[in-house]
Amino acid sequence: MSKIYAVGIxxxxxxxxxxxVEKAIGYLQSLTRQKRPIDLICLPEVFTFTPLPTxxxxxxxxVAERIPSRFTDQLGKMARKLHTYLVSGSFMEERGGEYxxxxxxxxxxxxxxxxYSKTHLFDTLDFKESKFFRPGSNLLTHQADFGTxxxxxxxxxxxxxxxxxLCLKGAEVLAVPAAFPIADYSPGEDHWxxxxxxxxxxxxxxxLAVNQIGSxxxxxxxxxxxxxxxxxxxxxxxPNAEGIIHAELDLKYALEMRNQRRVWEHRRxxxxxxxxxxxx
Length: 280
Description:
The chain has helices spanning about 15-30, 60-65, 70-80, 160-170, 190-205, 250-260, 265; strands at about 5-10, 40, 85, 90-95, 100-105, 110-115, 140-145, 150, 175-180, 180, 205-210, 215, 220, 225-230, 235, 245-250.
């Protein structure tokens, strides 16, 4: 399969988990009216419930999911109904008494075929994600029927070592569910555009990056969900509203671009030092 049809669902979330899930399922249901078969769908990060800096730790017990659950069964049913691969955005997962920011990958039969927990936690002066989550310790690539898919979550995109590693493992498409905020002191929207295009261009892969939109207290999510091609060109971009983006991804074209600019062959990994050394 050379060409695939990909969809991103940009949505705002509120403080009621059930309503957030209902909204997401509603968007997925609306896609059943599409005449064109869909190969890949991605939801945003923490779309079931987005924790605020002021939330107590007890909120985790109220909103966290175990796998499997009624919630994951709902998503699997929609993946099967749409006969698509579905990246579950991400949600708060409870596992062994610990909590993770987790994304699931469902195949066309609605089966869970991959689980990725965010490895880089967004700790800043005004928000510490590590208050709610532990970092994951495993990466995810999956051989789908259309090619190899890699999944990262939001802040992960600031770490080029991660995206390069996934692509060295064969990823041809990167799915990036996100709740990427903008703050008064940070040009978040500009960073989002640069980072998503850079991830695509550096690795010559497609990037399907799906952001939340709307406000949660002092956290403001600007949307701008985007699909970027291997040449760094934005081929679909969401407006300043909830909604759906979609585009055709031509994996044969991606291979042609790699053959034109043979950066994979020109790499000098014996010279690269990407160890654990920290800056002062």
